[in-house]
Amino acid sequence: MKAKISLMLLVFACAGAVSVLSAQESSSQGGGAQTTTVTTPNVIMPASLDNQGIRNYVLGPGDTVDVRVFGQPDFNTMADVDGDGNISLPFLDKPIVARCRGEREIQKDISTAYSKYLKNPQVSVRIVGRNSRPPAIVHGAVAMPQRVQMQRQIRLNDLLALAGGITERANGMVQVLHTEPVMCPAPGEIQEPETTVTMSDGEKLQSFKVYRVTDIVAGKEDANPIVRPGDVIKALEAEPVYITGSVISPQGVYLHERQTLTGVLAMVGGVKKEAKSSDIRIYRQKQPGSVERELIVADLTAIKKKQKEDVVLMPYDIIEVPEASKFSKGRLAETLTASVLGGFSSAISATGGMLPLRVLY
Q1: Are 289 and 283 spatial neighbours (Cβ–Cβ below 8 Å)?
Q2: Whole-angstrom Cα distance, residue 213 to residue 160?
Q3: CB atoms within 10 A of CB 153
Q4: Confidence of residue 38 (pLDDT cuts 50, 70, 90)
Q5: Where are the beta strands (DSSP E) in the chain?
Q6: Is 320 helix (H, G, I), strand (E, B) or coil?
Q7: Taken in order 335, 338, 341, 346, is the CA torsion positive or negative?
Q8: Which among 102, 113, 168, 258 is most buried, taking Cβ atoms within 10 Å?
Q9: Region for 70 from its dihedrals, namely left if φ exceeds 0, alpha if ψ lies in -120 to 50, beta otherwise
Q10: In the 8-state DSSP scheme, what is residue 123?
């Protein structure tokens, strides 16, 4: 009897499992039913192609399109956009203009051209190779230097964020170099002329623009331009200054935008109490890269009292904080105290071995 009951329970369990599986299969195949999304680890899929600007993509030299004519396999072809911005198709004497045009515009022209040979041709055009826009490069003092292939408009702050942001070694300036002209300017868009800089030896170099990170963070529109394909963006790295002498931690530090003497001394822990703060010496290059230096004397005490202007430092400045004389006004009392205590302890130690020792019981 028990065996029969167990057999019946097993049959019911199998029937239930089969019904659940068939219901899941029918729900996945039915119209308007739920669909299962399969995600790949570490891959971020765009929520909408339109949001990424892919469907608004216009063609340029180097792009590839897949042209299909329904029911006419002889007319199907893969065509590249040539340097003049045209594509050549089978059986057509004249090329189709593709530069700065989208899939639908080209599709209409191809349908019209093939109407001479076919009745009401059904043409589809699909972009399969987007090679006309070289990637932008972001490097320098950023967390993750990389190349970025852009298929929509991206501003400078977007690209810096994509690179993980700037690091503490950045000096607060970002350099943007245009290597390619704008291929398909928007209607009414004012194009900046491509300028070059002529060096003293006659060599011509492309000019660049520099933007302040503080202006970008503040939301100033002029400091947040649209990055063009092929742009080279460099977060400039800070250059060092060197602090020596009577400071808590002598070392070299990276110089950020408009840093002053008081700020840099604070970064190394400040000056020692025996330092001669009124005679801080700054050795500065006369010209960038020159071995000759000029001497600038700064009075830190007067700067703190706002009697003198703080000194704005330059890259590769050498800051020397001298130690005051032991007999100077600020250290005289300390020197005399140390001398008296030192002499007293010396006298005790000198006579300590000559005094008799008595033991009281």
Answers
A1: no
A2: 10
A3: 12
A4: very low
A5: 64-69, 77-80, 86-87, 96-97, 123-129, 136-140, 146-148, 154-155, 170-177, 196-198, 204-206, 208-212, 226-227, 232-237, 239-245, 251-255, 280-285, 293-298, 318-321
A6: strand
A7: negative
A8: 113
A9: beta
A10: E
With a cut of 50, say whether residue 113 has pLDDT above it.
Answer: yes
> What local confidence, expressed as pLDDT, does residue 137 receive?
94
Residue 166: DSSP 8-state? B
CA–CA dist 144, 146 (Å, integer): 6
Of 142, 192, 145, residue with least CA distance to 171: 142
| Residues 6 or more apart whose Cβ sits within 8 Å of residue 70 | 121, 122, 123, 124
303 neighbors 310 (Cβ within 8 angstroms): yes
Relative to beta strand 170-177, strand 136-140 is unpaired
Rounded CA Rg of the chain: 38
Give the C-alpha separation, 48 to 288, whole Å: 51
> Residue 35 pLDDT more than 90?
no
Instruction: For residues 5-33, give the mean pLDDT.
Output: 45
| 216-250 pLDDT per residue, tens | 988 888 899 989 888 999 999 988 999 999 999 99
3-state helix, strand, coil in the chain (%, to 5): 25, 25, 45
pLDDT at 77: 92
What is the DSSP pairing of strand 136-140 with strand 232-237?
parallel
Provide the pLDDT for residue 89.
93
Residues belonging to the chain: 361
CA 134 to chain centre: 18
User: What are 143's two structure tokens?
Assistant: 């967390």
DSSP codes joined into one string, 33-91: ---PPP--TT----S-HHHHTSTT----TT-EEEEEETT-GGG-EEEE--TTSEE--TT
**Mind listing the pLDDT tens digit for each residue in 298-356?**
999 999 999 999 999 998 999 999 987 665 555 545 655 555 555 555 555 555 556 66
Let me know the angle formed at the C-alpha of 130 by 128 and 134, rounded to the nearest 5 degrees: 165
